[in-house]
């Protein structure tokens, strides 16, 4: 599923790509979760999950 299909926008329209790169630049496993409109976006490694709130 593409984010643009769900939100009509890209991830970069909502999240600063440089900040995202800085968060995942370390060696540890990073899980990110944040709201966009009525949805919760979760990135766990290479897995993207979008759920409705």
Report how far the terminal alpha carbons are from each other: 17 Å
Q: What is the total tally of β strands? A: 3
Identify the overall geometry: globular
Helix content: 10-25%
Instruction: Provide a count of the helices.
Output: 2
**Total separate domains:** 1
Biggest sheet record: 3 strands, antiparallel
Q: Radius of gyration, rounded? A: 11 Å
For the largest beta sheet, what order do the strands appear in spatially? Answer: 1-2-3
Reading the helices and strands in chain order gives: HHEEE
Question: What class do helices, strands and sheet pairing give?
Answer: alpha+beta
Low-confidence stretches: none
Strand content: 25-35%
Overall mean pLDDT stands at 81
Question: What attributes does this structure have?
Answer:
53 residues; three-stranded antiparallel β-sheet; 25% helix; 34% strand; single chain; globular
Could you characterize the architecture of this molecule?
Helix content is 25%, strand content 34%. The chain has 2 helices and 3 strands; from the N terminus they run H-H-E-E-E. The protein has helices spanning 3-7, 17-24; strands spanning 31-36, 39-44, 47-52. The chain is of the alpha+beta class and 53 residues long. The relative contact order is 0.20.
Topology:
Blueprint: H1 3-7, H2 17-24, E1 31-36, E2 39-44, E3 47-52
Could you provide a short overview of the structure?
Helices cover about 25% and strands about 35% of the residues.
């Amino acid at each position: 599923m593409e984010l643009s299909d769900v939100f009509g926008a890209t991830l970069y329209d909502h999240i600063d790509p440089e900040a995202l790169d800085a968060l995942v630049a370390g060696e540890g496993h990073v899980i990110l979760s944040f709201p966009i409109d009525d949805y919760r976006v979760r990135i766990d490694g290479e897995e993207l999950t979008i759920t409705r709130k």
